[in-house]
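Is this the right way to post structure tokens for a design question? Let me know if I should format differently. Anyway, here goes:
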């Protein structure tokens, strides 16, 4: 008698290596890991640590030693859970409090001692854009959305449809910072609550008119404050836990005022640490809903970290990189000559391939080098002789979705140094990147620009090679040997590279 054999279950597409997003927020640090299966993200781990960084920021925007230590302790726990991940699989972003902290560099330096991944301090606008992407990627409809995210130190509001933002803003008001500002003595008074609402309305005033231009099909509130308020209202009113109405918020306000003290708040299911800041969160949410004329909104689980994760995995899911779209958009906006950009990109790629091994450069440098090559002439429309300065100014100050502050500064630095004199004392100090690697990328980009200065599709004028030290060898081709102007320019480059500690050796094999 033969045995019945169960058919093999269908196998999913091969799972890719996992990705991880770590959000260093003003109230909590959030880590999420996931893998891509069948073109979708499958969450693997969610890890959260409360740090209350915003409460450690003084009037001079200095982060206290205690707050810094709380953050570092939480970061160590996150680092343990990221053991085995490669740098290309992880993105770590820091938001409002670290954005504002004047001693941020101290925190980043101490974190770098045990965290093998770069921490990007992102702008408020970039934070808002990523929050929107987290919601857009996890909601099935294509409605016109308003997304509201009340964090510990800032509040982001974004209007958009599908995956495109129409308007975004980041305001300096958060549940932790407003608690410290208005309820630090533990008293909940009508006067203090009204002061918090007045401050929130003042923050909102410059952007309300812009947001009211849109007719929203759906309004989503993300992160801890919104979910805590929805939980509170649902328990009290026996309603769905993913919805907040204006009437419910008024009741929340009245109950808080009746209690009179923060330590008397006891809401079933709410974390005590959330209870300590829920009064400020209520004032901010109430002010937003009143200012925008919202009667109700829905809460949503996805937020900044999901937006980061989806963009990190974007090259696997749909082969798109938002940073590449940003670069392409800037090149188009400033009418960059595509043929010349292609020539410089091609030369930069070839030269990078020659030095990547001996100089032990990460292959991920190449993408940033090629973006700089693509954009090095964005300032040409302003003035040709100072093009590199104008290009650097544009790249340093433009709205560049997908780029962290330091990555944007890196592109501006490479472009500013791509020609003429190098001024080492003006090179910024980077937290995320090795100064020596930045200097070597400057050299590679300069040579790519120099080799294509005639703007013609001609054979290379020289070839390069490097040793494991700081020497770069340039060997002229037949084309290069016939160009005395090029030889004079290369001799000038010898002096410029010496400023960076790099020895340029010229070879004429005629």
């Amino acid at each position: 008698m033969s045995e019945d054999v169960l058919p093999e279950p269908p196998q999913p597409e091969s799972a890719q290596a996992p990705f991880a997003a770590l959000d260093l927020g003003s109230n909590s640090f959030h880590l999420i890991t996931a893998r891509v299966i069948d073109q979708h993200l499958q969450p693997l781990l969610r890890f959260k640590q409360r740090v209350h960084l915003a409460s450690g920021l003084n009037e001079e925007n200095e982060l206290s030693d205690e707050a810094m230590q709380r953050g570092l302790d939480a970061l160590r726990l996150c680092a343990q859970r990221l053991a085995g991940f490669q740098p290309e699989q992880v993105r770590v972003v820091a938001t409002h409090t670290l954005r504002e902290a004047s001693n941020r560099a101290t925190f980043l330096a101490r974190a770098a001692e045990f965290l093998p991944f770069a921490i990007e301090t992102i702008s408020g606008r970039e934070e808002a854009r990523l929050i929107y992407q987290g919601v857009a990627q996890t909601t099935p409809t294509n409605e016109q959305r308003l997304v509201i995210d009340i964090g510990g130190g800032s509040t982001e509001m974004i209007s958009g449809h599908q995956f495109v933002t129409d308007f975004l803003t980041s305001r300096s008001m958060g549940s932790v910072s407003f608690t410290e500002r208005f309820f630090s003595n533990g008293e909940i008074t009508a006067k203090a609550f009204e002061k918090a609402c007045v401050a929130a309305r003042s923050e909102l005033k410059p952007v309300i008119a812009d947001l009211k231009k849109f007719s929203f099909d759906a309004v989503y509130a993300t992160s801890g404050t919104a979910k805590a308020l929805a939980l509170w209202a649902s328990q009290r009113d026996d309603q769905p836990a993913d919805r907040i109405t204006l009437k419910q918020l008024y009741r929340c306000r009245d109950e808080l005022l009746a209690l009179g003290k923060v330590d008397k708040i006891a809401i079933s299911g709410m974390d005590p640490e959330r209870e300590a800041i829920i009064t400020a969160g209520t004032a901010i949410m109430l002010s937003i809903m009143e200012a925008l004329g919202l009667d109700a909104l829905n809460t949503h689980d996805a937020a900044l970290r999901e937006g980061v994760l989806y963009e990190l995995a974007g090259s696997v899911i749909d082969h798109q990189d938002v940073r590449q779209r940003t670069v392409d958009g800037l090149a188009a906006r400033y009418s960059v000559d595509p043929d010349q950009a292609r020539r410089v990109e091609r030369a930069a790629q070839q030269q990078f391939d020659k030095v990547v091994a001996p100089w032990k450069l990460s292959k991920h440098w190449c993408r940033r080098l090629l973006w700089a090559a693509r954009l090095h002439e964005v300032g040409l429309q302003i003035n040709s002789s100072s093009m590199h300065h104008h290009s650097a100014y544009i790249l340093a100050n433009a709205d560049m979705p997908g780029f962290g502050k330091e990555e944007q500064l890196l592109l501006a630095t490479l472009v500013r140094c791509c020609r003429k004199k190098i001024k080492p004392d003006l090179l910024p100090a980077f937290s995320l990147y090795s100064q020596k690697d930045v200097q070597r990328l400057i050299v590679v980009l300069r040579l790519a620009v120099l080799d294509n200065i005639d703007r013609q599709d001609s054979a290379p004028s020289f070839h390069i090679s490097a040793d494991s030290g700081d020497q770069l060898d340039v060997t002229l081709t037949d084309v290069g040997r016939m160009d005395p102007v090029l030889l004079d320019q290369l001799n000038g480059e010898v002096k410029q590279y010496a400023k960076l500690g790099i020895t340029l050796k010229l070879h004429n094999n005629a």
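Format looks fine. Someone answered above. Worth noting: Residues 190-211 form the longest helix (22 residues). The two ends are 85 Å apart (CA to CA).
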